[in-house]
Amino acid sequence: MIEFIVILLISLPLIIVGCTISPDTPINFGTRIPQSELKSEEGIRRLKRIKIALMLAGGITLAGGISCIIFDWEELLFWIMLIPVTIAVIYMLLQLCMIQKNKKAYTIITLVFIGFLIILPLSIILPKTENDNDTIIKNDTLFIKGAYAKEIPISSIIYIKGNAIVPPIEMRTNGISFGAYNVGHFRTNDQKDILLYLYSDETNVTHIKTRDNEEIYINFKDSARSVDFTKELKELYLH
Fold it and tell me: Residue 58 and residue 27: Cα distance in Å, rounded?
């Protein structure tokens, strides 16, 4: 419920401001921007861009946030609330700089925006690479948590092999690859689609096949845990 309220508090102001902003709107950007500049041809054009950016950011935040709540995408919710509004606000400031022809402020904001675009993907990926695999076995089901979460009933598994070798990968079709961290959907050199949940390139890898023709490779950063996982899974599978 709190998440829903926060989403509304972020998205609705963006949509409302986007709908109401016009050349007649008093706008202060350090100093109040003269109406003559706002009502000029360039001012009208740039205010229209601001209007679209704010409404689009509000719509994406609202729709994306509600989807995250419905489908329990907790990891995405924070970024859905942060990214659209941040980009929209920076874009709005750049447009206001252009209306005022303030080149110094425009340069500063542009550099901030570039820095944001560089830091953003790193801030998303790096925390994931630092964590270990959160896969557990419970109630005869394999729960793979985190990015590309998956639940696999033990009864659906038809093959388990420890100390497996991951086949050569041709491409990442829908996943994350950052050093030894490889999670998601990948395609091998022989055109086979596989799922990887690999957190290290130095520990034991467990290869799993299911009745649905899925092939999954899992390991952990912790060497002992990687070995124990294969043993535990095999014991349940054989029983």
Answer: 20
pLDDT in tens, 29-74: 666 778 888 888 888 999 999 999 999 999 999 999 898 888 877 6
What is the Cα–Cα distance from 20 to 167, expressed in whole angstroms? Answer: 56
Between the alpha carbon of residue 44 and those of residues 24, 93, 220, the distances in Å are 10, 15, 56
pLDDT single digits (tens) 75-108 = 677 788 888 888 888 888 888 888 877 766 667 7
DSSP symbols for 15-53:
HHHHHH--TTS--EESEEPPHHHHTSHHHHHHHHHHHHH
Instruction: For 174-225, write each residue's pLDDT tens digit.
Output: 888 877 888 889 999 999 999 999 988 889 999 999 999 999 999 988 889 8
Q: Decide if 137 contacts 233 (C-beta within 8 A).
A: yes
CA 102 vs CA 30, 57, 206: distances in Å:
11, 25, 59
d(CA 131, CA 221): 9
Query: Which residue, 132, 225, 228, is CA-closest to 183?
Result: 132
pTM over 0.85: no
Q: Rounded CA gap, 143 and 140, in Å?
A: 10
Asked if 51 and 18 touch (Cβ cutoff 8 Å), the reply is yes
- Residue 129 burial (10 A CB sphere; 0-12, 13-18, 19+): middle
Written as six digits, the tokens of 162 are 């420890």
Amino acid present at 41? E
